[in-house]
Fold this protein.
Amino acid sequence: MIKVGIIGGAGYTAGELLRILVGHPETDIAFVHSTSNAGNPIHSVHKDLVGDIEGDFTDQLQFDVDVIFICSGHGHSRSFVESNDIPSHVKIIDLSNDYRLKDHADGFVYGLPELNLEAIKTANKIANPGCFATAIQLAILPLAAKGWLTEDVHVNAITGSTGAGQNPSATSHFSWRNNNISIYKAFSHQHLGEINQSIQQLQDGYAGDVKFIPVRGNFTKGIFASVYTHCTVDEKEVVAAYKEFYKDAKYVHVLDYAPDMKQVVNTNKCLIHVEKHGDTVLVTSCIDNLIKGASGQAVQNMNLMFGLDQKVGLQLKSLGF
């Protein structure tokens, strides 16, 4: 069994991670760390886990585990790693953005399985991709792999309220978010760095920009991204390139019809659809922001690191219609 420790155990990503791990046949949850909830039952915060998980949150660290998932907020993971003497045999999967960029990676491998599969298998430390970054990269990378990106890439993507984290804010509480929609961080979102980094990995020298408009949605979970750019290649050839690129991907499915976001919520899937409009290619990509965009992908990476099939413990079903 893989002994697991979770740091920052009270947030949304940790809750989703726990829901997955309690059903994972190869893991044993050794501890769930939270300084603010130390001594409280885990199910007192993650209330749906009543009857599924026993034990309390702890503020004590223990490193007699095989892997640690860091679910702390952005900026806290690096300080945690640097201030604790974590044994070299303990694998680390960080869900923040602290180690995603190569210039600051400190030995962390960027954990997008559809891009860095072999490197993940031998890695000791993983920087789990961002949620928007996952949906957008999976929409773009087949074009980059073919060298077909010649102009700017335009992205409009809408995300659920859980993407803002568990702590309430002026733009996340129900009375503001419900029946509402708004733009934030236009052209400046923090995930752009990792998106551009991955494009350059496949199409070195790409000189265009990713013009990204993030949108707050009035739903809880999910990301729906519409991505378009100039492309003169025939539609059949473009679709064939996507299907070839993802032929061995466990969770990316290239559809012959436009997907609905509801198909992916509560799953680790990414659904992709490609169509041409003159010399413009439009790619639709949708994921669950907390699963394929965070905790599900983290478990997918853990499975790879420990030599398991990627799908172990991730046979999750959508909520349906």
